[in-house]
Write a structure and sequence with these properties.
The complex is a heterodimer. By secondary structure, chain A is an alpha/beta fold. Chain A has 7 helices and 5 strands. Chain A is 51% helix and 12% strand. In chain A, helix 3 links the parallel strand 2 and strand 3. Chain A is globular and about 85 Å long. By secondary structure, chain B is mainly α. Classes of the chains: A alpha/beta, B mainly alpha.
């Protein structure tokens, strides 16, 4: 009886999806494929590229995506992490699931919509098969990832992406919506004032419109707080399922 | 007092509209149409890849005439099916759309299976590129379908729940069709790629 229960439990566990890890850094190594200094070196390279161009490239190394195929897992990661700038969609995720069985595939390059123009499906496949796989076959994971990242960056540099937004531009975006609220309030005020002119009891309306003024101006003070604490986070980019999968 | 009463009635009507979900219908209907266009877009992208693919395979495997012709035929059947916005509101048209795309999928997988038997073809960079483009497009189709199903679910729930189902009846919003797996048993067994003795 206990054996049957154990079997049921284990099969139930096997059917559970692998959770998407939280996005904390550009290189997430859950499979122990990199030494700390190798991971730090890759982080630096990826960060430097992002600071220069705004493109967000990340690496995810894990043991297995079973029971999902790597594409299914990849799109879940992409939708959770949202790498790439919103509207520009220039995010790229390189996922390696080192213990995946053959039919689930072990490598995937998940490319954001905006980057698909240069990192086409064909180019993604070539990066996986011709640039990364040879190194992986000799078990040199760092060399493979380093070469892969270099190829990805080289391709991204060919696309004229919009320049990195300065902090001043971001403040401007935050300031725009209170304008809309103000406009609405202004319009309502005009309506009430025109009612007053039609001979209603002026002190009654005056008091209530005073209340409205007080209420609305208290309401919009809380905008413009986009904190930039220095942690790595996605920019809201979208992924459409483009890229390629492969093996080594 | 009459003015005040008029304002109150207008406010009551406005709040009733939001309560019965009229505005939600607008936004979810538009979201459904957008998700649907994305699905159609990706299927079209696949259809566009096929002539190139057929020509490349012909260059190496010209006597696989049957398979090549089957793909070409299935492709023209899929592309000649008129995609109007009405397909989304008509379950029969939707089912037919699924059918022609499904037949194209089968013809394509047979072609790719056949191509496995020709090492020169497999090694050709052109074919490898086309193969990766096809795989990428199939993945995009899968993602677009998944997102469509989620969007439709949210729309359909609104259509069926009370009280927004009354609004739905009033304004003619019907439940929209979603993708079904036509033959679950067939799909759950992966197609065997027979390398045979030709290698």
């Amino acid at each position: 009886m206990a054996l049957i229960l154990a079997m049921l439990l284990s099969s139930a566990a096997a059917q559970e999806q692998v959770p998407v890890p939280p996005l904390k850094a550009r290189v997430t190594d859950l499979a122990g494929m990199l030494k700390p200094e190798q991971q730090a070196a890759l982080e630096k390279t990826l960060q430097a590229h992002e600071e220069k161009t705004g493109n967000q490239v990340a690496i995810l190394l894990l043991n297995s995506t079973a029971p999902e195929v790597i594409e299914q897992y990849g799109i879940r990661v992409a939708e959770a992490w949202k790498l790439g700038r919103k509207g520009i969609d220039d995010g790229v995720i390189l996922i390696i699931a080192k213990d995946n069985p053959r039919d689930l595939r072990r490598m995937r390059l998940e490319v954001g919509r905006g980057a698909e123009g240069v990192i086409t499906d064909a180019m993604s496949k070539r990066i996986l098969q011709d640039v990364i796989a040879p190194h992986f076959r000799s078990n040199d994971f760092y060399a493979g990832l380093h070469a892969g990242v270099a190829a990805i960056h080289a391709l991204l540099n060919q696309e004229p992406f919009p320049a990195v937004a300065s902090k001043a531009d971001e403040q401007k975006n935050h300031a725009s919506w209170p304008l809309g609220a103000f406009g609405l309030f202004f319009f309502l005020m005009i309506l009430f004032i025109s009612h007053r002119k039609r001979g209603l009891r002026s002190d009654g309306w005056g008091r209530s419109s005073g209340v409205y003024i007080g209420g609305s101006s208290g309401g919009w003070s809380s905008s413009g707080g986009g904190s930039d604490t220095g942690g790595f986070s996605g920019g809201g980019g979208d992924f459409g399922g483009g890229g390629a999968s492969g093996d080594w | 007092m009459k003015k005040l009463f008029k304002w109150l009635v207008m406010a009551a009507c406005a709040s009733m509209l939001t309560a019965c979900g009229y505005n939600d219908f607008q936004s979810r209907d538009e979201a459904s149409k957008a998700a649907w266009s994305e699905v159609v877009n990706q299927y079209q992208r696949r259809a566009d890849l096929i002539p190139n693919l057929v020509n490349t395979v012909k260059g190496y495997a010209a006597h696989e005439k049957e398979t090549l012709e089957a793909v070409t035929k299935a492709r023209s059947a899929a592309t000649s099916f008129q995609i109007t916005p009405e397909v989304l509101n008509n379950p029969d048209a939707f089912a037919k759309f699924q059918k022609v795309q499904g037949e194209l999928s089968s013809a394509l997988s047979r072609l790719m299976a056949v191509s496995e038997r020709y090492p020169d073809l497999k090694a050709s960079q052109n074919f490898r590129d086309l193969q990766s483009q096809l795989e990428g497009t199939e993945n995009r189709i899968a993602v677009a379908r998944q997102r469509y199903i989620k969007t439709i679910e949210s729309y359909n729930v609104l259509t069926r729940q009370f009280p927004s189902n009354l609004t739905a009846m009033m304004f003619g919003y019907k439940v929209k069709p979603s993708f079904t797996v036509e033959n679950e048993k067939e799909i759950s067994t992966a197609p065997k790629v027979d390398f045979g003795s030709r290698k």
